[in-house]
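Q: Give me the 3D complex with 2-phosphoglycolic acid.
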Amino acid sequence: MTNKIRYFIANWKMYGDLRSLKTLNKVIKFTRSNRNKRFRIIYCPPFTLLSSFSKILKKSKINVGAQNIHEDLNFGPHTGFINSRMVKSLGVNYVILGHSENRVLGETNIKINKKVLSALKSKLNVILCIGETLYEKRKKFTKKILKKQLVQCLKGVNKKTKIIIAYEPVWSIGTGIVPNNVELENNINFIKSLIKRKFKNHIILYGGSVNPKNIEKINQLNLLDGYLIGGASQNSKKLIDIVKKTFN
Ligand code: PGA
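A: Here is the predicted complex, encoded as structure tokens.
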């Protein structure tokens, strides 16, 4: 077991309302009482809860992130969107970008790159999601796709930036299916080999159906800096279990 910090990103997607705030208490308590200081939890609730999360978690060790932003740094006529400055002004410090659930709606690498640059200008930490679809995996395009996503989405990013990459195979998100460790190791090593050429300060996460039952197996790899957790992260007990099992 190394001393590196492990990241646990709780992506709530389009779930949660004001009643969900009470689920935070257990996790706040856990982070306070736990003597292990080698982990960070970052909650990424829907936009409607960012402000409340930020207030409640202000004095805790838990951070808050948004799930997306508009690429325009300025106020503008973009109905239904918010930008990096608006998010930052709420006390939010992270943003998930390039999630496959947004890529399927038409978000291209070029657009994601604009969002990355905008987020960094507002001093948000970027969690960039990359990953291949099942079709791309079957066609053996995985590495080509991962490389293209990394190169295009990170174009123009200063090499001193702390960059967080979440490898999320699209076929694994919400399906209960996770890559086997050989495949995962292969793809994570590939991502690392590309990213470390430019970014010394990089963090590599895995996301896709992570839960308390499979975390120990995935974690055997000992290659990852943490996990991006969707479904299981809405349940505080499951989230705490995942954190605990990572350090077993
Ligand atoms: P999941 O979602 O854990 O529910 O598969 C992960 C993600 O979409 O980030």
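A quick observation: The first strand starts at residue 6 and ends at 11.
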